[in-house]
Fold this sequence. Notes:
By secondary structure, the chain is an alpha/beta fold. The protein has two domains: 4-143, 3-Layer(aba) Sandwich (Rossmann fold), CATH 3.40.50.720; 147-299, L-2-Hydroxyisocaproate Dehydrogenase, Chain A, domain 2 (Alpha-Beta Complex). The chain contains eight helices and 14 strands. The protein has helices at residues 12-23, 38-49, 93-109, 123-134, 147-161, 200-221, 226-240, 281-299; strands spanning 4-8, 30-34, 60-63, 74-77, 115-118, 141-143, 168-169, 172-173, 181-182, 188-189, 192-193, 245-253, 258-267, 270-274. It has a six-stranded parallel sheet, with helices on both faces. The chain has a three-stranded antiparallel sheet with strand order 7-10-11. The chain is globular and about 50 Å long. The model has no long low-confidence stretch (mean pLDDT 96).
Amino acid sequence: xxxxxxxIGCGNVGMSYAxxxxxxxxxVQELVLIDLDTKRIEGEVMDLNHCLAFAPSRINITVGNYxxxxxxxxxxxxxxxxxxxxxxxxxxxxxNSKIFKKIVTEVMNNGxxxxxxxxxxxxxxxxxxxxKYSKMPHxxxxxxxxxxxxxxxxxxxxxxxxxxxxxIHAYVMGExxxxxxxxxxNARVGLQSINEYLKKEDMDxxxxxxxxxxxxxxxxxxxxxxxxxxxxxxITNAILGDENTIITVSSYDKTNDIFVGGPSIIxxxxxxxxxxxxxxxxxxxxxxxxxxxxxxxxxxxxx
Length: 303
Ligand code: NAD
């Protein structure tokens, strides 16, 4: 059977994911794009298909509809409003939750039994709502979570130290939003503690830059999308390749009954398990604060 990915919502984020999929050697054989704006998507599919002569592997790319979800391995939802300059991710909650109710219901009515991969903001809430609306087991629902923030963190530390970000082992955890934090107590460069490399004030500066990265990009170019496109491909590969790879996605936290960013082992079933790091007291408090922010937002949701 072919590995099939359906993307619902093919704006900046959905198309960056599609383009990144095409440019990397993945296990995806079928890629289906769905959007309200069918005409534009027809153009996007033509444009992507014209890349195939130079792509690392062959992918069948088509404009689709919800019946395509039936035999899909992954349905990625990137539909909905994005932040305007000055808006927080949480400001999008009521608009996007209504869109999600329709989309997830439609996907499930068409017999989907694969893994949901969520990119729309506010990320942890949309991931939670996908779980509620789909009634699927929690392990089949993965949000991109703090994977993008973690990628930004690894780049910024690597840039500061002139060391390959692949050798920087550090996580951003919590809400993909203003209450996220860096778990510095667990951060390492190679196998050495980050304290050997960075002073407290450097860490604070990097943490602030990571938290403000989306605002800084949106103020300059209106939206962020290449980074999340690459993160979605990384998560896709972990799922389709049955990799058991650790990524800081938004996954189900049993203790708090919400979805929140933290290191999670990802394989073909979706979430294998969340890893509960030993945090210091300050980080533990920041995690609890983030969890409270997410819970409060869920409780205040309009019907
Ligand atoms: P965009 O406006 O460029 O694209 C959104 C697309 O969704 C549009 O093409 C629109 O037609 C489509 N859409 C809306 N309602 C739909 C529906 N009911 N069915 C099908 N398609 C529908 O926005 P974008 O920049 O691509 O951002 C999308 C979302 O991703 C936003 O919520 C944004 O905040 C979020 N985002 C998340 C991350 C992350 O790290 N998770 C990073 C960047 C952006």
